[in-house]
Structures are given as C-alpha cells and as structure tokens.
Design brief:
Rossmann fold; 37% helix; six-stranded parallel β-sheet; two-stranded antiparallel sheet; 8 helices; 10 strands; 20% strand
Length: 224
C-alpha cells in the first residue's frame, strides 16, 4: 500500500532521525517545519546521505499534514497545542497521528527530567482532544532517543504503542518494526501513554547518571 508519512518538527533531532530510518526502509517521507526552506534543506541532506532513490521531501507543517496519510508529531511539547490548533482545518479524514512527545521541563540549570502536569492526562490525550473527529491518535516512540535514530546501527529498545484505534495501532507498529533492532509492543489504550511518557523522564536521568546517551527499555519473558 502506498502511503506518505509526514513528520511535523522533522528538522529536529527526533524527527530527522525517524525520517532517516523510515526513508531507508522505503517509506515515502515528508519533513514538515515552520520554515519550509529549512525542511527542504534537511530532506535534501537526508536524500544525499541515504542515496539511491530515497523518497523524502520537505514542506511547511500545514502542507505536510494536509497531504500525508500518517503524521508524526515530534515538535517540543510546549508548542504542540498551538500547532495542532493551527492545523485543525487541514487534516484528511482517516489520518493517523503518531504522538512522540513528552511533557518534560528542566529545573534551573539542569536537564529536562521533570514531568509537567497535563490536564488531559498525557501529551497524547491532549493531541486527541485537539485533532478533529475522524483523525486517530497513537502514542509511540517516546522512549527511543534521537541520538540512536541518527546512527546506522540497530537500536536496542522496545517501542510501546498505545491507542484506542486498532488500525492506527497497527500502522504505528509497522513503522516501529522498520527500525532495525526496535521491537514494537502493544501498550494498550491511549490512556497508558501517561505511563509511557513518564518513563522518558526516568531514562533521561539514567543517561545522565551513567554518562550514556542510549538507555532504552526491554521487556522480558514475552513470546516474541
């Protein structure tokens, strides 16, 4: 099945890392940004890096959301609500939105390890409230670091996929499975994103204490 995967905030480390991995696997990617020219430049750089017939282009966020079947939200959490309100009229019915964001804040002079309270319960549930009916929301990829995505080697991480829509969950699971080393796991309902998002704060702290950039999560004892 032919599909386009758009990445809002795709010029940042997380977004460009996902774009790189998925374009290498054969997905058609559109990088979205507030600055369309910047998106075009990042897309061109990734095409050069991947080589061959990599299908990856750039556009502004609104154009990206309007033309893609799957849209991945990788903008920093403080800007998510404003962006989603701007995009409310551009979504196609049936679009799947994959929210990778985490409501983290930094203490003064420190790293972003403090979870922010979100009235809806989680960043993903806030996204569901702000997109139109007919657009499905999935929470995934919160615990997979940008530095790992930017490299060529396999990652060592389970990807929890949470959604109330089984079709949307399956699409996010397929995309997770295209990242070498990643293992997608059914994380249950979207409300479970509250737990998954909080694990990111824990991982950030572990990375700091052990002076690494690659701490991930693995679940044992599963038949897969």
């Amino acid at each position: 099945m032919s599909r386009k995967v758009g990445i809002l905030g795709g010029t940042g480390p997380e977004g460009s890392g996902l774009a790189y991995r998925w374009a290498r696997s054969g997905e058609t990617i559109v990088i979205g940004s507030r600055d369309a020219q910047r998106a075009v430049e990042v897309a061109a750089g990734l095409r050069t890096r991947i080589g061959g017939s990599a299908k990856i282009d750039g556009a502004d966020n609104a154009m990206t959301a309007s033309q893609c079947d799957v849209v991945v939200l990788t903008v920093p959490f403080p800007g998510c609500a404003a962006l989603l309100k701007q995009l409310k009229s551009v979504w196609k019915p049936g679009t799947v939105v994959i929210d990778t964001t985490v409501p983290l804040a930094a203490t003064v002079g420190g790293a972003a390890t403090r979870m922010l309270g979100v009235w809806q319960g989680s960043a993903a549930e806030q996204t569901r409230e702000l997109v139109p009916a007919g657009v499905s929301v999935v929470a995934a990829f919160q615990n997979l670091g940008a530095e790992l995505l930017s490299k060529d080697e396999a990652v060592d991480c389970d990807i929890l996929v949470c959604s109330d829509d089984e079709r949307a969950k399956q699409i996010a699971t397929e995309l997770a499975g295209k990242i070498p080393g990643a293992r997608p796991l059914n994380g249950g309902k979207l409300e479970n994103a509250r737990i998954v998002e909080s694990l990111t704060a824990l991982l950030v702290g572990i990375n700091i204490r052990y002076k690494v950039h690659s701490a991930g999560i693995r679940f044992t004892g599963l038949p897969i």
